[in-house]
Amino acid sequence: MCPPRHFAVEYAINPWMDPSKPVDAGRAMAQWAELRDTYRRLGHTVEEIAPQPGLPDMVFAANSGTVIDGRVLGARFRAAERAAEAEHFRRWFVEHGYRDVTMPSRINEAEGDFAWTGRLLLAGTGFRTDPAAHAEAQEVLGVPVLSLRLVEPRYYHLDTALFVLSEATESAPAQIAYYPEAFSAGSRRVLARLFADAVPADAADAECFGLNGVSDGRNVVLPLEATALASRLADRGYEPVLVDISELRKAGGGPKCCTLEIRK
């Protein structure tokens, strides 16, 4: 995670960003700290990277890389405003002992568009990540990759429209939650075929960034407003944990956007 010390909305690179609307940096920091502390209370280890001046979106660490079995595929951003973030995160991985670090040749916004199910890497495209980056991810990470096409501009990254609730094990398949209307017709059919037991989300869930959740297989961290989705998850046996990310949402981010999951 990366503290939002320099958080601001100074440009618009997604439909949620409006530089004319005021941003409370102090409130953003408090919300981020509560999210970090929530993970710690749930028993998770949180590593932090130092934020850099001039990179207000660096708080959205999910876009910094994809880590599976200790292999790291870095990021290459589509927007020039975020391009410099990639090198800061690459250095962090190297300085923290990761030796198998590959920087992509194709545009790849990391866990923004990549979701690991335990067996498959679901890979989004349509607005940010280059479709050719999916083949590159498969080659670098050595895992099968399934392409999914996003068609709704407000849900420009896979992690705004889908998240993994529980990874696949030898005895159980992976389970996901997703918002079908964010995907092309073909991608919806693929998801329905692969994840027949998926938790459905509606427009209200998506609009509050409810699909930008983080699950450890039991506890599911969601935006405070995602009460309907939380109820459906509780009915499935999960433990919803609601957090306020309203200030960070002004830049198009939620719990998952702020969180890179490191799978060693």
Automatic annotation (TrEMBL):
InterPro entries: DDAH-like (IPR033199). The keyword Transmembrane does not apply. The keyword 4Fe-4S does not apply. Keywords: Hydrolase. Coiled coil: none annotated. NCBIfam families: DiMArgaseDdahMtb. Belongs to the DDAH family. This is Amidinotransferase. It comes from Amycolatopsis acididurans.
